[in-house]
Structures
1.
Amino acid sequence: MDNDGALAVRTGVVTRRDLLFALPAAGWAQDVEFLCPMDPEVRSKGPGRCPRCGMRLEAGLPDPLEYRVELATLPDRPTAGRTTMLSFRVLDPRSGKPVVVFNEIHEKLFHLFVVSEDLTFFAHEHPERQADGSFQLPIVLPLEGMYRVLADFYPRGGTPQLIAKSLLVGAGPKVSVPAPPANMGITLRLEPAQPIVGQRTMLFFDLSPAEGLQPWLGSWGHLLMASEDLLDMVHVHPKWEYQPEVAPTVQFNVIFPRPGRYRLWVQMQRKGLVNTKWFDVTARSL
Ligand SMILES: [Zn+2]
Ligand SMILES: [Zn+2]
């Protein structure tokens, strides 16, 4: 496969399921003993870690099913500039009952991305698990308007999930959003220079300096890629085998699903500080 699993992390599990169906059927099940839950086409005869994302390989995976996520806010109608409590409840699609046990992905039970409609607000947070199995996050959303929230979690007995929800925020007091702290420069090169829809695009992030780069949340970097209309959101990681002392460049492989403009937020940690930087990229059809 030359797409390097980029499709496996598109919103929802539909594409993950498609990907599983796309695997060669004959002789596959008998040969495969251990799979990566994030990159199901990564398989091995023995236990170990996925060379792509560093997750532990598992013996067999359940059928991919999309879990339901209920998002509640307090107050009911969030106001810009004031603290809103977000609560997430995950329901098992088979029983309709709340899920209370989750597997860790990248050192956390629940990852959440929040992006404003105009793409100027970005947050990568980790809601806290409550006694009833729900997850909560207090957050200040600075702008009025629509937001997309992308929940990334792995219910026990299921497969890793990426579920997007919308959130409407009403007008409120103006608050300033400080620029994210940074202690390294990050520039982006693409190959091909203009991405083609449906084909692999290699993203090379050149770091200056790269010395002192550290894994953060079990990965050398985290990338959220969102289409301008926020309908497609992809969460991608570079190869786990990356060696910062060998090359000052971290490579991610992605596939742009539709033509148009995308915003990419990349997050990498150097000397204890998480650097967040965004880039705009336009993909064209062949
Ligand atoms: Zn996270
Ligand atoms: Zn990540």
2.
Amino acid sequence: MADKQHAIIAGGGIGGLAAAVALSRAGWRVSVLERARALEETGAGIQLAPNATGVLNELGLLDLVMEVATTPENLRIRRASDGLELARFPLGVIAEARWGAPYAVIHRADLQKVLLERCAADPDITVETGAVVTGFADHAQGVEVAFQQDDVKRRIPCEALIGADGLRSTIRGLMGLGKTDAPIWSGRTAWRALVPLDQAPEGVRKLETTLWLGAKCHLVHYPLREGALINVVAITEDDWRGEEAKDLWTISGEPADVTPRFSGWHGDARKLVRAAPSWKRWPLFDRQPIRRWTQGRVALLGDAAHPMLPFYAQGAAQAIEDAGALGRAFKQFPEARSALGTYERARITRAAAVVTASRRQGSIYHMSGLLALARDLTMTSLSQHMLMARLDWLYNYKGQT
Ligand SMILES: Cc1cc2nc3c(=O)[nH]c(=O)nc-3n(C[C@H](O)[C@H](O)[C@H](O)COP(=O)(O)OP(=O)(O)OC[C@H]3O[C@@H](n4cnc5c(N)ncnc54)[C@H](O)[C@@H]3O)c2cc1C
């Protein structure tokens, strides 16, 4: 039997690990090179929308994920000032029927564990940590990837290189897209906390994802690990960029930085914010959509290709969609350049649409005054069916271009 072709993936985040599984299933041997010395997802919870769980199913991962995920019964939207319910989507019941796959929430560490265990059990996948990809050269015969591990500089050949190395992607930088291709500060910061259930106020102890809309600020919370924890994310407008910080999920925030912003909010939200034992702060950036994700045998994936603001909770979902598309393209075309061209065509328009929609959603969530009033009136006047129909384009994704 001929040797399998070899792909290198720079970055072992959710996107890189999902892509490793997809490429292995397409018959490739895969090396994941991850900069961090240990793979530890510290970012608490993540929502897995039906477009993501559908692809996880295609990759044979959904059953494993659902063993450790939680399925909230509803997604509820409440007004910050008085707690009024603006909308309720019974996602726990309708997601599979309407969009063909469940809506779930999961601790990032649990999702990463599932992906890592799947990679570890696969003889065609290796995951190297402490391996920083520094460069590549795309020759006629293949790609040579340069990386550094334990102060040793190494080069290895492969037939395809996937840059899944996040917002500040080295691979994207090496593609030479120019000075205008830089991360864009959104003027917003995400604050994240985990609250043990027994310390949370009674009004939020529900099997629900709740989104609170306030002026220039919103709050999302949902249960994790069978409801033992409540994952809380507050997004505020801010002028603190934290650009110098490299390891973003680990920047601590003081409760005193967060709690005053919720002083005029309904008691349920206010008490939940006050119950948070500690916070992590995460400055929010995205980048302008680009025209090309591929260059010969090299392609970008996940946040490296299309970092987005988290207002639709879609960054990881889009990385997972990328992985699914990559697998399909490599099954169809054994030659890397043809496969990567197909992958790019399948993904680039859709991902750009989600980047743009996520920005727009941020402006809608953070409205104040009359605009907020109009938004709230629209939400309360539309039927549940009409509100859910607005999500069809996003959630009803079956790998189509
Ligand atoms: C507040 C917030 C909430 C969010 N909530 C959701 C949500 O609910 N649902 C959702 O779908 N998405 C959500 N997202 C988005 C999601 O977290 C990201 O889009 C997703 O994690 C991106 O995965 P990735 O693998 O592409 O990149 P990353 O997770 O950034 O992984 C990149 C990896 O590459 C490694 N790396 C970097 N450079 C190199 C190099 N030179 N060599 C080797 N390795 C390298 C890094 O160490 C890292 O492990 C949220 C984001 C934020 C900020």
3.
Amino acid sequence: MIYTHLMLGTPFSISPNPATLHLTPSLKAALHKVRRTIDNRQGLSCILGDAGMGKSSVLRYLYGAYESESGVTAAFVTEPEISSPYAFVKSLCQVFNVTPRRSLLDQKNALKEFIFSEAAEGRNVVLLLDEAQGLNSTMLEIVRSFLNYETNNAKLLQIVMAGQLELRNRLKLKANKALKSRIIMYSLLDPLSLSETKAMLNHRCEMAEIEVPFSDSVIQLIYDAAGGVPRDILRFCDGAYALSQLTGEKSVSPETAQSVIDRESQIMADEAA
Ligand SMILES: Nc1ncnc2c1ncn2[C@@H]1O[C@H](COP(=O)(O)OP(=O)(O)OP(=O)(O)O)[C@@H](O)[C@H]1O
Ligand SMILES: [Mg+2]
């Protein structure tokens, strides 16, 4: 299969391009659960995971699927505005092309009107909300209020929130209990296994139409250093592949891989400090 038109950047790019997503069994299960919640109009789903585990890629994947589905109005908020509750609701309205209003109440009402008018036309409204760990209790309460729009057996708005693990902690707070009780399903993205890592790299190389430039022992080295986190695996692979090309290696040697792991780990530690 020719994927070249879908590839952006290098084979091991760390941008959340859904075309490069390798669907592991647990990812497939998570997608299936989210899709069922959306299609049955059950309201809220939540995708949780550490940094670099694939949350944004999963949301982009879902957006790609729903954007082209007839009978669905889908929107994707990559980074909600969190400076105030008003700015937050305005940022949700923006992705649905709902006109800005002057107050929080008017803005919420405008979104409500939009959701009801879409529902009246039989459309399922889907909001994909990334970086949800940044929402405070007031904003989470606003999310909850949007889930109140319903008929006897269906929600009018489906929301998929993705966030780092602190979102789960935030939902555990007493103030957010009402929202937590409404979450139909959580999916926790786990680190990849070694065999999933190999399959992911195969998938990437197939898309880029190159031979896999890593031996099993180099993949093991990278896998151990990355702890199964997809973004870290790709970061090490990208650096090692670039360096091996520079030095004219046919495939990445363990020494090259180790030197990139050491260098990138140092950069990551500095970034975290
Ligand atoms: N199953 C997978 N197959 C292929 N690539 C993956 C997979 N999971 C994650 N990735 C890649 O890992 C990188 C990081 O993914 P992504 O940006 O989606 O993570 P994230 O969970 O949103 O991170 P953050 O919390 O920092 O926003 C991306 O390049 C993405 O394509
Ligand atoms: Mg992300």
